[in-house]
Amino acid sequence: QLSFAATTPELADKKKYPYFFRTVPSDNAVNPAILKLLKYFQWKRVGTLTQDVQRFSEVRNDLTGVLYGEDIEISDTESFSNDPCTSVKKLKGNDVRIILGQFDEEMAVKVFCCAYEEEMYGSKYQWIIPGWYENLWWESWINSSQCLSKNLLAAMEGYIGVDFEPLSSKMFKTISGRTPLQYEKEYNAKRGDGQSSKFHGYAYDGIWVIAKTLQRAMKYLNATNKHQKIEDFNYTNHKLGKIFLDAMNETNFFGVTGQVVFRNGERMGTIKFTQFQERKEVKVGEYNAVADTLEIINNSIRFQGLEPPKDKTIIQEELRKISLPLYSILSALTILGMIMASAFLFFNIKNRNQKLIKMSSPYMNNLIILGGMLSYASIFLFGLDGSFVSEKTFETLCTVRTWILTVGYTTAFGAMFAKTWRVHAIFKNVKMKKKIIKDQKLLVIVGGMLLIDLCILICWQVVDPLRRTVEKYNMEPDPAGRDISIRPILEHCENTHMTIWLGIVYAYKGLLMLFGCFLAWETRNVSIPALNDSKYIGMSVYNVGIMCIIGAAVSFLTRDQPNVQFCIVALVIIFCSTITLCLVFVPKLITLRTNPDAATQNRRFQFTQNQKKEDSKTSTSVTSVNQTSTSRLEGLQSENHRLRMKITELDKDLEEVTMQLQDTPEKTTYIKQNHYQDLNDILSIRNFTDSK
């Protein structure tokens, strides 16, 4: 049996149909061609969408076998009976970009309508469907769908159809002596106005197959058995039937449909590829099953994008990095801050022998500046990410910048609070008769604070060190319009118990700030400006506390925006360091330039001048009332003399206190108990004696 039009794959079963041949390729013949096309465009991930009809299911099953072992994944297999939209939606959900469809014209209209609704068309998708549909096939079924014609055509644009080639495109002469083109002209001339069938070339080649088979059988009979002729054939003669079968399998000639060769009764024909371009199908290539070659016509395939669609969403990880201009600007501000700190250091060292600077503990001032510069330096490290350094270096920077900022903070505020503690210890000393606190002791205090920091940091590093972690965010479309998705990634410095370690550090720094606030409050009444920084300490603690709380909150909320986070952290550090240094040194700078002696004078002299005016008025009033009290005046003069002697004695005590604050190892006298109260009493005694 020889068929020129039966394409159903079921007839390929040689156990059921051992004597069946066909000159037309079966529906399964397109699968090797599809495999070749997939390899040509390097598509390694596909999905299938099949109508629940045996003809299409068999093709799909055969395709699965063809693709098996060819490094091409069928990521999703969907089928439908009447409504394909659910299946189309599942294909999209599984990120299927290359869809191999098997369905008839009616279902094809529904499929492409669903594809339009799901936006499964355009530059990111490629549909490969049967190519045997009639010309303008969609016009017959558009009315049965709820899809607009323009929408349907938009979804159909670019699909590739696969079908057997009706006539060969080669210009070779066939076994009949005609080229395929000459045959087609003669056929059209003979058939007149009758409707053409795309199978006519296979019918024509089929006649030649039969003729060549009979010819080979006759030659074989003549060569082997001169007594038996082909005319003696009957259906019970299995020997002659075997001769015919072998002769049919040996068929090999060039016909109008291409090279005619059988393999297990199946025609090894030519498969053509067409593409739907601007409402018409255009041939773009063909596959030769005999030679297993694919030929793509130059520049004939038009893809919607600049390149063939990807077989899946290409995810390109992109590091969210700190902007170089932003890093440059903040680095410039940091350098200015370090220059300012260096200027303060120069000022402090140059004027260390000035009484104003000497009384304010220049060594502690140097530590405050050092702490500020360490805090400034940490900004450079916070701005270095994966775009500047390697992963290993970034992990090291995680630890280094934490250590530098922590030590810098403790050094600056520890030194400030230590010298304030000395003022508090001297002026609040009510039991000891002698109180000399040198800078060495203050350095020990600051060293103790730093030792606590080091213990925390070393335990942190040993038990649960900071590591480089990468946080991945949701995919975003490519800004350049390429067929890829961008997955932003962000580097963090984290560890297993990050919250616990940060809580320990914050708790220690918070206690340090509270201690500073306590000292500032306790020494608020000390009336020597060179000694008393309580007001400026309070302002520093307030500003640093507020900025740190705001900065930490905003930094946490913007952890997915490295530029914003780095900007907030850097500005907070710059502001806190700058405001602290300015509050400590700018008042001293101004005082030293304007009135270097005013800062070391006790406030009692200002009070004395103001009180003199008031007491002068009181004295005049008393004199006018009782000018005759001469004897009482003499007694008051005597009391005045005694109190002046008391003032002289207390002035010596005040000078002794000042010498202690300067670490002056000169010989001192004992300080009387409650001398702080006595010093404040100087004001009232002086005023009283002056008025009297």
Number of domains: 3
**Structural category:** alpha/beta
The level 1 CATH classification of the largest domain is: Mainly Alpha
Number of strands: 17
In CATH terms, the superfamily of the largest domain is Rhodopsin 7-helix transmembrane proteins
Number of helices: 19
Strand order of the largest sheet: 4-3-5-6-7-11-12-13
- Could you say which overall geometry the principal axes of the C-alpha atoms support? rod-shaped
The major pleated sheet works out as: 8 strands, mixed
Spatial gap, N to C terminus = 147 Å
What is the arithmetic mean of pLDDT?
A: 81
Q: What CATH architecture label of the largest domain applies?
A: Up-down Bundle
What's this entry about, in short?
One of its GO terms (biological process) is gamma-aminobutyric acid signaling pathway. This protein has 692 residues and is of the alpha/beta class.
Keywords:
Rossmann fold, rod-shaped, 3 domains, 54% helix, 692 residues, disordered C terminus, 13% strand, 17 strands, cell membrane, receptor, alpha/beta, ANF_lig-bd_rcpt, Rhopdopsin 7-helix transmembrane proteins, single chain, 19 helices
Annotate the secondary structure layout.
Layout: E1 2-3, E2 21-22, H1 30-40, E3 45-51, H2 54-67, E4 73-80, H3 85-93, E5 98-102, H4 105-117, E6 126-130, H5 149-156, E7 160-164, H6 180-191, H7 200-224, H8 238-249, E8 252-255, E9 258-263, E10 266-267, E11 270-277, E12 280-288, E13 293-296, E14 314-319, H9 324-350, H10 355-359, H11 362-382, H12 391-427, H13 439-463, E15 467-472, E16 476-477, E17 484-494, H14 498-522, H15 534-557, H16 562-594, H17 604-625, H18 630-661, H19 675-691
Parallel strand pairs: 1-2, 3-4, 3-5, 5-6, 6-7, 14-17
Antiparallel strand pairs: 7-11, 8-9, 9-10, 11-12, 12-13, 15-17, 16-17
Helix pairs in contact: 4-5, 7-8, 9-11, 9-16, 11-12, 11-16, 12-13, 12-14, 14-15, 15-16, 17-19, 18-19
Subcellular location: Cell membrane
Membrane topology: Multi-pass membrane protein
InterPro entries: ANF_lig-bd_rcpt (IPR001828), GBR2_CC (IPR041689), GPCR3_GABA-B (IPR002455), GPCR_3_C (IPR017978), GPCR_3_CS (IPR017979), GPCR_3_GABA_rcpt_B2 (IPR002457), Peripla_BP_I (IPR028082)
